[in-house]
């Protein structure tokens, strides 16, 4: 596995070694010793899978208590995955990184606690899997507004994205309850 830091070094792209032949392919999506050597979590308590259609935008979510680090992968289709630093004491507070995850590139994105996370779907359909280091706690969930001008995410969607009612109520970074 190759662990590649992004422009915000705490957010890491994981590139697996893929072994393919006429039968198909094989790769290790998670290997505890490799993750430990890279300084990433090795204990995950919840796996989630979502299916979404093109132009769906999910996020930007985080939990203020019971913070969740996430390991995100796209099993089918293509997504643009985004992490926003919401740690007020961080030198990269309010900055974001994004990358394409797809069934073709087989990359994963590691997002630590202290980041809001979201993605938009670039293909007709996308199945996304993400592992979490803590359980989902609805009362602790918060949503950063997907189009906050202070953050300035360049979402690659055509037209208006499709949002959930909850995501339509996201707060701007200036009014959001953030990490210290």
Question: How would you summarize the topology of this molecule?
Answer:
Blueprint: E1 2-5, E2 12-15, E3 19-21, E4 24-26, H1 32-37, E5 46-53, E6 57-63, E7 70-76, E8 78-85, E9 96-102, E10 108-111, E11 115-121, E12 125-132, E13 141-143, H2 165-168
Antiparallel strand pairs: 1-2, 2-10, 3-4, 5-12, 6-11, 6-13, 7-10, 7-12, 8-9, 8-11
Describe this structure in words.
With 180 residues, the chain is mostly beta strands. It has helices spanning 32-37, 165-168; strands at residues 2-5, 12-15, 19-21, 24-26, 46-53, 57-63, 70-76, 78-85, 96-102, 108-111, 115-121, 125-132, 141-143. Helices cover 6% and strands 41% of the residues. The strands form 3 sheets. It has a 6-stranded antiparallel β-sheet, with no helix packed on it. Strands 9-8-11-6-13 form a 5-stranded antiparallel β-sheet, with no helix packed on it. A hairpin with a 2-residue loop joins β3 and β4 (24-26). The protein is globular.
Write a brief structural summary.
6% of the residues lie in helices and 41% in strands. By secondary structure, it is mainly β. The protein has a single domain, classed as Sandwich (Jelly Rolls).
Looking at this protein, list some descriptive labels.
mainly beta; six-stranded antiparallel beta sheet; 2 helices; five-stranded antiparallel beta sheet; 180 residues; Jelly Rolls
Helicity, as a percent range:
under 10%
Briefly note the structural class of the backbone. mainly beta
CATH superfamily: Jelly Rolls
**How many domains comprise the coordinates?**
1
CATH C-level class: Mainly Beta
Counting copies of identical and different chains, the oligomeric state is single chain
- The stretches of 5 or more residues where confidence is low (pLDDT under 50) are none
Beta-strand portion reads 35-45%
Q: Could you tell me the CATH topology label.
A: Jelly Rolls
Radius of gyration, in angstroms, nearest whole number? 16 Å
């Amino acid at each position: 596995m190759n662990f590649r830091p992004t422009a915000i070094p705490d957010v890491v792209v994981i590139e697996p070694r893929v072994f393919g032949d006429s039968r198909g392919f094989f790769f290790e999506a998670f290997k505890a010793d490799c993750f430990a050597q890279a300084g990433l979590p090795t204990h995950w308590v919840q796996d989630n899978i979502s299916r979404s259609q093109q132009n769906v935008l999910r996020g930007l979510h985080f939990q203020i208590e019971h913070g969740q680090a996430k390991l995100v992968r796209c099993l089918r289709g293509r997504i643009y995955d985004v992490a926003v630093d919401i740690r007020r004491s961080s030198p990269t507070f309010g900055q974001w990184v994004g990358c394409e995850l797809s069934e073709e590139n087989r990359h994963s994105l590691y997002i630590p606690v202290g980041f809001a996370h979201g993605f938009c779907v670039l293909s007709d359909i996308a199945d996304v899997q993400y592992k979490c280091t803590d359980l989902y706690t609805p009362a602790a969930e918060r949503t950063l507004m997907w189009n906050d001008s202070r953050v300035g995410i360049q979402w690659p969607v055509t037209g208006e994205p499709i949002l959930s009612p909850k995501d339509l109520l996201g707060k701007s970074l200036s009014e959001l309850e953030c990490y210290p």
